[in-house]
Design brief:
The chain is an alpha+beta fold. The protein is built from two helices and four strands; from the N terminus they run E-H-E-E-H-E.
């Protein structure tokens, strides 16, 4: 089952995570929130194994499921 997820992090962590993501082959978008001092990395159609990798990379407090997609 694949789903769309986003991980929100403060700016001070974004650079470190961006470097790690560029080393992989995952496609993502970056979303900045005007009212928050952080940034969200949005991933489309993430498999379970990819989600586990991202969950370890970002940490449990950053994970947010956006929507399910089973196609």
């Amino acid at each position: 089952m694949e789903k769309n997820v986003q991980f929100s992090v403060p700016w001070r962590e974004a650079t470190r995570i961006l470097k790690r993501l560029k080393a992989g082959n995952l496609r993502f978008r970056v979303r900045q929130y005007a009212e928050k001092a952080g940034v969200a990395f949005v991933f489309s159609r993430v498999s379970v194994s990819q989600y586990v990798y991202l969950y370890i990379l970002f940490g449990p407090r950053a994970a947010h499921a956006v929507s399910k997609d089973t196609r």
